[in-house]
Amino acid sequence: MPELAPCPQCQSSYTYELDNLLVCPECGHEWNPEEQEPVEEGLVVKDCNGNILQNGDSVVVIKNLPVKGATQSIKAGTKVRNIRLVDGDHNIDCKIDGFGAMSLKSEFVKKA
User: Fold this and answer.
1) What pLDDT digit, counting tens, does each position of 18-71 carry?
2) Counting beta carbons within 10 angstroms of the beta carbon of residue 44, is it exposed (0 to 12), middle (13 to 18) or buried (19 or more)?
3) Per-residue b/e over 52-79, b at no fewer than 16 CB within 10 Å?
4) Is 102 helix (H, G, I), strand (E, B) or coil?
5) Sign (positive/negative) of CA torsion 21, 31, 13, 61?
6) Which residues contact 51 (CB under 8 A, 6 or more apart)?
7) What is the rounded end-to-end Cα distance, in angstroms, of the chain?
8) How far apart are CA 29 and CA 70, in angstroms?
9) What's this model's pTM, rounded to 2 decimal places?
């Protein structure tokens, strides 16, 4: 069985063939391997469900997050708009109403 190319969007190695296309089960991307496009190399950040996040997306916090130095925490269900992706442990920079500028981990948010 020939080795299939990894997904050009999320680099998943679990691709499979569907007719004349290759399909990625993780991000849902479909492409024709004969019409290969140039791949953008960059930061790939996924939410708790495995969806790929991009700059400017809106996300929802999935659990209560305590904030150091604040008397209250960020509640589950809080919608955060216009995120910015950065490299590091806390890979989402954003502004949250009532808290100001924050850095969040992508594992505690889902794409809205």
Assistant:
1) 888 889 999 888 888 887 655 556 788 999 999 999 999 999 999 999 998 888
2) middle
3) bbeeebebebbeebeeeeeeeebeeebe
4) strand
5) negative
6) 27, 110, 111
7) 39
8) 41
9) 0.62
E strands within 35-91? 45-46, 52-53, 59-61, 79-80, 84-85
How far apart are alpha carbons 50 and 46 in whole angstroms?
A: 5
Asked if residue 83 lies in contact with residue 100, where contact means CB atoms within 8 angstroms, the answer is no
Rounded CA-CA distance 100/102 in Å is 6
Contact 92, 59 (CB under 8 A): yes
